[in-house]
Design goal:
This protein has 395 residues and is α+β, with helices and mostly antiparallel strands. The chain has twelve helices and 17 strands. The protein binds adenosine-5'-triphosphate (ATP) and magnesium ion (2 copies).
Length: 395
């Protein structure tokens, strides 16, 4: 067997942690760059002999360059990294970076990402730039895009923390939304009147082989993912073939981007059965956590295979139905999170994942629970039990 290449991961959170599990099985040496010695990902896999997981920001030029010297390929578990340094690392021949720094840079700015997708003929909600907006600028835009309208931060957005839905054009509603978004570059999107949200994980290896996973239904509250169910169920004539259509659209969107790895493609399913693309993540994704228990090859294993020029694994479901429920934190108190995890152990078909985060904060992703079952009805009944055990985020 060829000597295993060393992989460097920028970011040491839960997605990195779940990459360490297949890395251990496949014997792939990993180094994780993040601040702190005991991040979720660093807890689960030792650094190769003679090395330590670097302690620094995943945006730090010095740390990324140092990591590049020790690794054969760098990848990311978060897109908010330093794309310029990653591009320099490739240009200088220090090591490979997957997916490509250009893809990571493009995705980092949601407005540029939307422009790119629209130019490639991928359907997206109407959107407009908003540079240094005044209340009047926002009001003018609402007259074009309609209400409700979603104001979004172009950069550094995650878990809806860069989203402010605008339901009225009162001065106060607009100034509250702008104050929430703060000093970031913004843009606005027309509201997508979706019946469901859908996600598809797509994986492409360095040889250009592409596979997608079955589409899943994602349920968000306050712009944060709560529950993800597979396979996607959508009734009615308009919804015919929606799984295949969602996979095709996701594959078509990913085909416009360079580089290898897993891509999480988020979409809106409209009442007429058509799909709009919301955004793409250039990495494993929360909507693919269930693939660990529910698919023949998880998104995490396939991500490693993809960036290491290995054959891709079978993406198909190996259970009739599955779902994932996020375990969200409450401020400063780990008790409710631990209680939910303990309670879930009594739910048949449930697998508990806790991320080992030191501190609980409101709506922080502290863990998740995957549940599998012999039918959609059985899984959804188990999901209801899990949701009834969730911490109250408003306490
Ligand atoms: P993530 O954690 O997935 O990276 P994010 O912070 O980048 O999220 P988005 O994916 O843009 O944010 O939006 C989060 C959620 O907000 C969506 O999944 C959807 O529920 C809602 N949302 C976003 N844009 C729109 C829109 N144009 N119309 C209706 N709902 C929207
Ligand atoms: Mg996002
Ligand atoms: Mg999103």
């Amino acid at each position: 067997m060829a000597p295993k290449k060393t992989v460097g991961i920028l970011g040491g959170g839960q997605l990195g942690r779940m990459l360490t599990h297949p890395a251990a099985l496949l014997g792939i040496p990993l180094l994780i760059l993040d601040k702190g010695g005991y991040t979720p990902a660093k807890q689960t896999l030792l650094a190769p002999p003679g090395t330590t997981h670097p302690d620094g920001a995943f945006t730090s030029e010095e740390h990324i360059r140092e990591l590049a010297k020790t690794c054969d390929v760098l990848t990311v578990e978060i897109e908010h990294v330093n794309a310029d340094v990653l591009a320099a690392v490739v240009n200088e021949g220090l090591c490979d970076v997957q997916p490509s720094p250009a893809t990571i840079r493009l995705i980092q700015d949601k407005y540029i990402q939307k422009e790119h997708l629209a130019a490639a003929g991928i359907p997206v909600a109407p959107f407009k730039a908003l540079t240094n907006p005044s209340t009047d600028d926002v009001r003018d835009l609402a007259a074009t895009l309609g209400l409700p309208m979603m104001l979004k931060a172009r950069t550094l957005a995650y878990d809806g923390r860069g989203n402010a839905p605008l339901k009225s054009t009162d001065d106060k509603a607009i100034s509250d939304a702008l104050a929430f978004l703060g000093d970031r570059p913004l843009y606005a999107e027309g509201w997508a009147p979706f019946v469901k949200e859908v996600a598809v994980m797509v994986v492409r290896n360095t040889a250009g082989e592409v596979r997608s996973y079955d589409a899943v239904e994602t349920v968000h509250r306050d712009s944060i993912l709560r529950v993800c169910s597979a396979p996607l169920r959508a009734d009615g004539a308009a919804m015919r073939g929606v799984n295949v259509r969602a996979r095709q659209l996701a594959e078509r969107a990913v085909a416009t981007l360079d580089g290898a790895g897993v891509f999480g493609v988020e979409m809106f399913l409209l009442p007429d059965g058509s799909l709009l693309l919301n955004e793409i993540a250039p990495r494993p994704h929360n909507s693919g956590h269930h693939t660990i228990e529910a698919c023949n090859t998880s998104q995490y294993e396939n991500h490693l295979r993809a960036i290491l020029a290995l054959p891709l694994g079978d993406t198909s479901l190996r259970v009739p139905a599955a779902a994932m429920v996020n375990v969200l934190g409450v401020d400063g108190n780990m008790g409710p999170v631990e209680q939910m995890a303990d309670d879930a152990l009594a739910v048949p078909g449930a697998t508990v994942h806790l991320y080992g985060k030191a501190e609980s904060r409101k709506a922080r992703k502290m863990g998740h629970i995957t549940v599998t079952g012999s039918s959609d009805a059985e899984v959804q009944s188990r999901v209801r039990t899990l949701l009834s055990q969730q911490p109250d985020l408003d306490q």
